[in-house]
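Section 3.1: Structural characterization of target chains.
Under the original work plan, the team committed to producing a structural model for every single-chain target entering the pipeline before any wet-lab resources were allocated. The record below documents one such target. The sequence was received from the expression subgroup and is listed exactly as submitted; it comprises 613 residues.
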Amino acid sequence: MTSTEPSLDYRKYVLAAAAIFITVVYVLRLFTLQLTSDNYKMRADSNALMKRIQFPARGAITDRNGKLLVYNQPAYDIMVVMNELAGIDTLDLCQSLGIDREWFDRRMQEIKNMRGYSRHTQQLFMSQLSVEESSNFQEKLFRFPGFYIQKRSIRQYTTSHAAHILGDIGEVNPADIDSDAYYQPGDYIGKQGVERSYEKQLRGIKGSEILLRDVHGRIKGRYQDGRFDQQPIPGKNLTLSIDLELQALGERLMRGKLGSIVAIEPKTGEILCMVSSPTYDPRNLVGRQRGKQHKSLVLNPMKPLLNRAISGQYPPGSTFKTSQALTFLQEGIITKDTKFPCNGGFHFRGLKVGCHSHGSPWPLVPSIGTSCNAYFCWGLYYMFNNREHYKDTKEAMTRWKDYMVSMGFGYKLGVDLPGEKRGLIPNAKFYDETLKSWNGLTVISIAIGQGEVNLTPLQIANLGATIANRGWYITPHVVREVQDSQLDTMYTRRHYTMASAANYEIVVEGMRRAVTAGTCRSANTGMYEVCGKTGTAQNRGHDHSVFMGFAPMNDPKIAIAVYVENGGWGATYGVPFGALMMEQYINGHLSEASKAKADAFEHRTITYGSNER
């Protein structure tokens, strides 16, 4: 008996210690839960709390001169929590919001079918109410338990211009939600233009606030005076590179016509204007009517939503001859003094490429000035048949294609807008697959910007900028500055072509000759030296009118491409449009004579048949 007494005493002390320890732990835990931990208190109070998203102000957008283009205006959404709906008068609700019962039933079903739907969280019922509409509904809100008003903002556009650059915003789709956890059903996202390409910079960061509700679900105020609220962070402002007045002039000139005008500041790659015609008013794609307006634009056969400046792919016509001159010079196929005959065109082995009347034979500079087809056909023929430089035609073709790619053709340039197309620069493989056999004569039309060659107006304008810079370009871009951020280096880095600056000087001389004594004479002015090149691109219907140029010659401030579909000769629309645009940008205004000319062109329209578009 006595031998077991110490064991019993030990157990007694162990049990007492364990009981004391457990008691202390529970007391401390209870103290923490009731007095020191707000997190647990929030969980206990969750049935009386509501988390409401606070949407950030979207970044504003201005032009290069600080003119406001896009800003925010207060708007309100009607949100609904399905689990809180209790005996509301549906007819009264519909009358209060100006909707019918059919719309109400359809919308409620749409909400229930949304991905991620929950009966316990707020769902978007109706969007973008004005201040007046929201105020009227706010007075009756107590009659509709489960419905709430949420403040946000709506985009407003100060101008009817630059729609394809600015873009618009709309409600997110399932793909947007799946690709980015930032978005929830009912959120808005940039759909086109810089609103789309700079969405992450413009949208900001969402905040939230915790609201306290009574037993009837009515909002009684902010939980703990907003201690757990998170303030939204506004989006970043954008400064565009476009000049609004220049953009407006371009859109005026292109009214009633199909095509594009693109102007670039050569030294920076900044896009000064980007006109695509027909266009539309961005202010129409705002508010609850956006869907209806957007549908009408989609169904319009003239395709006003298409940004022809970056998505239109056209034969560049004779503007392309400048790139051929540079290639032939650099490869040693020709020199500045090389002459080729032109007897009404290129004639060889039964093949004829026509040309207009001018002197013959002429060297390179006047051949650029008069836009001689024969000169560049001969140049390509001798390049593709030169066996001292290339083992066969395919190798010559590959070398030719490399020059074109170095000049920014055949691939997307990388402009900071959605929807850019690459155009087409054919290579040997392309012709192997499309033709049974081919040689330099078979593909001779590519030398004058016809045949299989296709460029976008942006690429043609970039060609002008590259020549203005004597052999380099910076990727064209429409955003000049992002608030508190650096531009991507792709918009500040120079790209050098395969041709030398000395050979570019020869081409510049030829383009100046075109303005003083050639096909671009109507662009000549005593105010500054203009360099230009016309193009008359062949088409199934009427030819396209094209112009590419820059000014001033030795201190270039603007390079420009004009493309008017079915406009005829390059001198008919392309040259005068280019001249007016350069005058507006360089001088800051038009002379009285130029204003009259611009007014006349604004009211000239081109009739487009189904076979001419």
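The chain has two domains: 50-240, 244-294+307-602.
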